[in-house]
Write a structure and sequence with these properties.
With 117 residues, the chain is mainly beta. It has no helices and eleven strands.
Length: 117
């Protein structure tokens, strides 16, 4: 499966922004979708994840501010980011984790989100 993330940009602290990640070449519904980010000098970390079903998972640092959602009809996963902080500045990556065999992970190219103070 190929992943293409959209929506990186520059936003002021306290503002909101939305990222999208479109998947192609696979059956979208069998993938657990996630957003990760990597800030300069730091390791890549999980931001949010959503299975094909109920339940979502968020990093403590974004709980209550970020919302992950998916539209299986459009093969797209979204990350709505509210109350942005400068520390949210990072390259954001989309990941598709296949949940049926053969198990495999796919990564999209990152998109940079810069939050100015």
């Amino acid at each position: 499966v190929q992943l293409q993330a959209f929506g990186g940009g520059l936003v002021q602290a306290g503002g909101y922004w939305r990222l999208s990640c479109a998947a192609s070449g696979g059956i979208f519904s069998v993938y657990l979708m996630g957003w990760y980010r990597q800030a300069p000098g730091k390791q890549r970390e999980l931001v949010a994840a959503i299975p094909n079903g109920s339940g979502t998972n968020y990093a403590d640092s974004v709980k209550g501010r970020f919302t992950i959602s998916r539209d299986n009809a459009k093969n797209t996963v979204y990350l709505q980011m509210n109350s942005l902080k400068p520390e949210d500045t990072a390259v954001y990556y989309c990941k598709a984790q296949r949940t049926v065999r053969p198990l495999q992970d796919y990564w999209g190219k990152g998109t940079l989100v810069t939050v100015s103070s």
